[in-house]
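Hello again, I could really use a second opinion on something today. I owe you a coffee for this, so here goes:
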Amino acid sequence: MVEHAVAKVSDIKDGEMKEVAFGPSEAKVLLSKVKGQIYATSHKCTHYGARLVTGVLSNDGRILCPWHGACFNATTGDIEDAPALDNLCKFNVTIKGDDVYVEADEAELVRGRRAPVCQRTVTASNAFTVIIIGGGASGNAAAEKLREDGFNGRIVVISKEDYFPIDRPKLSKSFGNSPQKLAIRNSEFYDNMSITFKLDTSVTSVDPQQKTVTVENNEVFKYDKLIIATGAKPRSIPIPGNDLGNVFCLRVVHDNTKIDQAIGTGEKKNVVIIGSSFIGMEVASIAAKRANVTVVGIEKVPFERHLGEKVGAALKAFHEKNGVTFRLDTGVASIEPSVIDSSKVGSVVLSDNTVLPADVVVVGVGVAPATEFLRSSPGFNLEPDGSLKVDEHLMVEGIDSVYAVGDICRFKYHITGELLRVEHWNFAENTGRAAAVNITNNNSTPFTKVPYFWSAQHGKSLRYAGYASSFDDIIIHGDLDALAFAAYYTQGDKVVAVTTMSKDPIASHSAELLRLHKFPSATEIRNGLDPLQITL
C-alpha cells in the first residue's frame, strides 16, 4: 500500500468531485465529498472508461457517468445502476490537518475496477434453484447479482444463443464483431461463480404449477424461482421477398457478421435499410462508410416518434452530410430478386412504385417480446404485444415465484404512472439486478429506476434520460443544426424525458433530477432554466 497527499480539504466543496494525481506517477483517483465526508475511488467508469469527474454527484452519494448513466456509490465504489458490471475501487482517506491523504494499492490503481465479491459455493445438489431463461443483459445481470447478494443455491441460465452473454448494443454500432470480442464475461468467471449455462437451448414451455421449465429436447428443469429474461426478437415485414438472400435483421452476433460480409470491402454496394429509428439509423451510420445507403421509413423524419420532428430533422441533415439518402413518409411494397442471382435481393419496391437498387437489405422495424413459448404454457396471460405485466417487484401478475425482466416486462413507471415496456440495455440490466434483489430479500425493493439509453450516429453520441411514450411539446435548449442541444419532452407542465447531444452531463443530471422528483417544470425550462443549476 502507498499513501500520498493528494489535495487540501479546502479544495473540494460538499457535493463536488475532484480528479487528483496520486503521487509522482500518472495514476489518478477521484475524490467525492458527500455530507462533509471525503471519499476516494478509481476515477474512470468501468463501463467504457469515461472520466467520472465530468459526470454528476448527488447529495445521497451517487456518482453518475456522463456517457451512459452508470451509477456508483461514492462511499463504497459499488455499482448502483447499469450498465457497468464492475465496481470502482475504493481507497482509504485520512485527513491530516488541511491535507487529504489517500492510501491505495498500486495494482488497484492500474486496474481501476473491482469485480463484485460473489458467493461461489452451492451448498447441496438439491439446493434452492433459480432458473433464468435468457442469456442477455437481464439474465446475466440477475445471475451476477444473485451471487453478489450471497445467494448460494443453484443458478441455471438457459440461453437460445450459442455463446455467453455479450455487449449487444455494439452490434449496431460497429462491424467486425465476434462472440469473444463482445463477451461480457468469460466461461471461467461463470465457473468460479457456479453459474451453469445451457447454451444453444430453446425453452418450449413453463409449468408454474409444477415449477418446471421444459426445453426442446424434452429435458425438464425444476425451479424454486424463475426469471424470464428472453428479450426481444426483430419484427419482420410481411411482404414478398422478405426471405431472399442478403435480407437481414440484426439481433445476434451472426447477423452482424453476415451483414458485414454482404457489404464487403470492394466496390460500393447498394444498401437499403427499412426502418428509420435507432437500429436502422445506427446501421446506416456504420454502413455508409463502405456502401451507398438509402433509409426507407414511414415517418416524415427519422426518429420522429421517439425524438420528435425537430430533433429528427436535425439528425436527418447530419446523416445526409455523411452520404445517407432518405426515402421517408413511404412504405415498402416488395423486395425483388436480382436478375443475376434470383436467390438474392436485387431491388426494393416502395409503396409509390419507386424502385431502389439493393444488394443488401437490413430490416429494422422494431422488435417484439420473445415470449411465443409461453402461449402454450398454462397460467400466463400475455399482453396483446406479447409482454408480461409485472408488479412493482417485477413478479409476473397472478403467478407465484416467476419474474419477468427486460424487453418482455410491462411495468408501472413510477414517474408517470403509465404501464410501459422499455427496450433498452440499461433498463434490461437494472430489471435483472432488481429481480435478483427481490429473490434474495423477499420482495423488499420496488423497482424505481429511471430509464437511460444512448445511440451512436456517425461518431456522435445521443443520450436519453427518462421516458416519454407521448409528449405535448419539445423544448429545445442549444443549437440543433450543430447537434449541440438538450431537448426536453413535456406532458402538461411536467418534463418526463431529456435528449442531449454534446451537452454532457445534462442527461445524467436530468436522470437524477427525475429520480429525486426535483426536475423543474416545463414552464421553468421554457423560460431558460438550465437543469444543471438544480442541486442534486
